[in-house]
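Working notes for the structural subgroup meeting. M.R. asked for a predicted model of this chain before we commit to crystallization trials. I am recording the input and output together here so anyone reviewing the notebook later can reproduce the run.

Input as submitted:
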Amino acid sequence: MKTVKEVSDLTGISVRTLHYYDQIGLLHPEEVTDSGYRLYGAAQLQRLQQILFLKELRFPLKEIEQILNRPDFEPRTVLQNHQKLLILQRDRLNALIDHVEQIMKGECTMSFTAFDQTPIEEARKKYASEVQERWGNSSAYSQSEEKAKKRTSEDWKKIQSEMETIFSQFAALACKKEDPACKEAQKLVSSWQQHITKHYYDCSIEILSGLGQMYQQDPRFSQNLNQYGEGCSEFISQAIAIFCQKA
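Returned structure, recorded in token form:
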């Protein structure tokens, strides 16, 4: 068996993230020693691979847990789809390499097909849809879909404006080097939780905690949040973690 540090070194996933996965019930170690060391066996490493692929398909952690815990879940199907996605990514990289070599040889080419990520994104959506159809159907997903059906364009504008106001206020606190545990930051976390519950789905403490982790660890979210101000994503993530610990 491997220690949490060895698993971290093997996978590139931080020890903190592995501890968090244990905390939320997504990935428990096979054994915890009397000294408190987490030990992971082959079954846990296999589950971790499945978690990482479902993250590639952009499922939130809560849905990943629900999918993996279903008795009819088929790991082989997930691996097959993962393989197909990797092949598409490999083919795109090979095309980019060929394109660069042509330019270096002085060949004039105005082709941009090598930069096209459409096939990869379409495959990602297709496999995510398959997973959702077969093993998804989470209450959060259903709630979000139902609420979205009833919204007008004006509703979307108001929701977007409310979200931007909250994130701008977070960014202002981060810019002033305020403590994420301060009253203002914690009030904003509460406002954000209420915003999600009102407009998307019931945002429990567990879901909110997962979102906080994702805001800092997922480059797509961190880059978007940091547009409001430098360090915004890290500040929000820390503020949410503190809020959830006190809940």
